[in-house]
Amino acid sequence: MVKKINTAVFISGRGSNLKSLINFSKKKNSSIVIKLVVSNNPIAKGLQYAKKSKIKNFVTLFNNKNISEKNILKKLYKNKIELICLAGFMKILSKNFIIKFKKPIINIHPSLLPKYKGLNTHKRVLKNKEVVSGSTVHLVTSKLDSGKIILQKKVNVTNSETIESLEKKILKIEHILYPKAIKKFLSSL
Q: Are 56 and 37 in contact (CB under 8 A)?
């Protein structure tokens, strides 16, 4: 039997990648069990997926980053979390948090890193008339969207592409890419 790693997923919004990771975690050959969902947004739609799947959740508003991160760390230790998956979490974790957690943190980003780090990726991709874009799963370091790349997947960008259509196209591949990347990453440990 596969040893399942206690995992926390951090979200800020609709939680579609969280939903995909919950489905993945329920598979027999999955290497993760989601023990905690953390959000900075009390009305994040993704929190409903956590409740529906009876996964503990913790909301902290990040009004004071230090206090929020300390409280998150307490929850992570209490739930024996060994892996964090950022899934549309719209806050940047401090270097201090990353060092104190001492375990892997991975993120999914809607571009082919190292291109288009940060926000508004689809808008910038279209503005620069790119013909391909995609998604990247990478390790989190204290430098934004700069950690070691675990897995990437490309999508073609058409002439008629809009920000919304590109976002939809990339989100669709992310739901497949994130579980694959987690599997690949954990098997390399």
A: yes
- Is 138 catalytic? The answer is no
User: Alpha-carbon distance 39 to 43, whole Å?
Assistant: 9
The tokens for 80 are 């024996």
**Tokens 């230790």 -> residue:** 77
Annotated active-site residue in 109, 122, 138, 175: 109
61-85: pLDDT as tens digits: 999 999 999 999 999 999 999 999 9
Is the whole-model pTM more than 0.90? yes
Axis-axis angle for helices 16-25, 163-187 (nearest 10): 30
Domains present along the chain, CATH in parentheses = 1-103 (3.40.50.170), 109-189 (3.40.50.170)
